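Limitations
The structure tokens in this dataset are predictions for the assembled complex, not deposited experimental models. Users should treat interface geometry with appropriate caution, especially where small molecules or nucleic acid strands are included. An illustrative entry is reproduced here so readers can see what is and is not provided.
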Amino acid sequence: MIRYGNWRIWTAASVLLLCAFAYLFAPHDPYQIELGKRLLPPSSEYPFGTDSMGRCLLSRVLYGGRTTLGIVLLTWLATLAIGLPLGIAVGFWRGRFRALGDSFLNVLASFPPIVYLIVWMGAWGSGTNTVVVALTIASLVSLVKLVKARAEIERDKAYVVCAAASGASRLRILFWHVPPNLIRESVVLLSLISADIVLMISGFSFIGLGVGEGGIDWGAIMTDGRTVALLRPDIMLYPLALIVACAFAFNVLGEELK
Amino acid sequence: MLRETTLTVRRGEAIGVTGESGSGKTTMLKAAMGVLGRGCEIDGGEIQLDGRAMDKLPPHERRKLAGTSLGFVPQLPMTAFDSRIAMGRQIQAVYCKRLGLSREAATGLAREKLRQVNLLDAERVMGSRPGALSGGMLQRVAIAILLGLNPPFILADEPTSALDPDNRAAVIALLQDLKPTSGLLVVSHDTEVLGRVCDRVHVLHDGELVEEGNLAELLAAPKHDWTARFAETAGQREEGYWSWERW
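Predicted assembly:
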């Protein structure tokens, strides 16, 4: 059960909410380039200083949180919307469909997420959508496998048999009675893989496969910072600290929800 | 699993089936209900309801019979309901779907039937999730649903095995109430259910019916080994189940 007085959950959730919404309080426009103010040290006007293009680093880090956590949220929603019904269906299927579903999942699972990212990037170009699609496919596999295994257990439970015995249709059982009994485990799993998702988004951006030119995210800020690491080593530390904080918060949230 | 098993249940009659675990009792009920588990198939024989072969019906036709023509009393009422949905909504859903009632009418009927099974605080029962109610209460709710649907035939799978003595007596009384209007097929090891509810009792052993008669006859002159052992333990239970001296 969720204990509402559980401070760990609240702390983790607060960290994530802060990272997601702090951009509202950003002191400057994160895209505003002022070449006369390049690589300024932290000051009262620019608390984290400025980057190699003279943009306010604090504002960029805060907007980066919006991008990263926005991608995590979209990935969550897409994964749940596709993974839950698909997992339940595969779990309840029998015969030939089942083998087909299993094989399909195994094929999906056999590629690392970066492969999907590269394929989609080739087809669509870089951008937030591409990252969301690649991450959704990558996290879909683990969710579908979990839901499938749980659905197999649910299928033989008395309430499913009794629902069938009182005339509930297969669709009603599949999509009305079973999902609420699986949603909790799904959310826990997603919280735990969210830490990986945050790291992946930043990792992708760091190697230049991220949200692209228009977007700001922590991985991209770190890439920019790398070129001036000798002059201003702290530029890489701000996004790094937030990546660690978010990954940690997601892990805590997942563990506590369990 | 089941072979050469022929059973006929008429309306107003209660037939009991007993036998050792694994002999195929529950499989028989599930086959009749059309909810056989994974890897189970009917490869011969027929299941008829009022002369119609049920196992040959397409699934949607078959579903129409579930609840309206064939009722089911589960073995473990604690797991028989969806644990995330309030009881009232679950009962309402069955009544709306099976009887074609409006929501209000279904709720009214649910309230009335819950009172009939002696769940007088019907509002509280309907507002609770299954986890908040005891096994005995849930089994009475299951029977209340059947009272509302009033199916001509009812299958009961060990209806008293998970209940305490008080609730057991209440459920036995309710099954007796159902008897005049419905045909009952009761799977049980409970001599009280078999004796007080059932007119005839069949003994199922290793997938075959080996003996039949009323319970008193079976216990007095058992022909099969398993029945003899059953009679022996039943006798012991009746003599001094609660007596400390025997220890």
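Some entries come with short summary sentences. For this one: The interface with chain B takes residues 94, 155-159, 161-170, 177, 180-181 of chain A (CB under 8 Å).
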